[in-house]
Amino acid sequence: MTAVRMRARDLMTEQELIEVRARSTWKSVALIAHAWGLILGSIAMVSVWPNPLTFVLAVAIIGSRQLGLAILMHDGAHGCLANDEKLNMALSQWFCAYPVFAETGAYRRYHLQHHARTQQEDDPDLILSAPFPITRPSYRRKFWRDITGQAFNLVFFAALAAAGVWWAYPLLWLLPLMTWMMVITRIRNIAEHAVVPDSNDPLRNTRTTRAGFLERLFIAPYYVNYHLEHHLLFYVPCYNLPRVHAILSRGPYAAQMEVQPNYAAVLRLATAKPANEDKPGMLASNVRRARAGGAVDRNQISSGF
Description:
305 residues, two-stranded parallel ribbon
């Protein structure tokens, strides 16, 4: 079922729409370079100062930037990295998607269904949000499951080996990918659509979560926390979403918007079920989750997310 949508011109003026829609290739390239700069800088940090503290810090930073690459691939799926589609796809595929074992085209095909059917029974992403709220013990099990690790990469490994740091590929690329990135991807999915107030209201079936410096560094890179704004205007590049949020916060719909003060507040909502209702190994909201699972096709699987 198609989700209810709001007209863009009901949210802001024509001039404001023109400004927030503007795409800048250099800004996209700068964000991609920023992600890779932090990744390579973290590897260098461990190489120069090898100790448990720098290693754990590097895993958290690299894992957050791996999610950052996935977020920038998401912008590419919406055609927002560059005005030229060939350049947009090249940036998205080679510098964002392939490094984290994803594929932009497949992601685009299923992800646009999510926008059309947000929080409806046939939303392909419903499986990510339907089971919540859950108990705190259930979330702890999911956390530990993530953190324990449930053609580009060959080149990357070869480059690290040539630089004399071959060990960085398994320890500082695959390990963050299978641990910290999994943790924060789950937190991101919870924050965006889990336990929202009204699945049929476009202002309340998607959530924006305010994020401070540390949350942006370790959990929510590249404006991913402005998810409500993205759903309302999904053709807006990620770097313009803070401006969209500011405009909407001054508008007539500000009081209706689903906004949480931080990720801790969201996790409190998502783990509000009493501990005595915890049933390890069982799925919450089995019927809705089964229906959502039926809508997940090979595009979602091959997209990597």
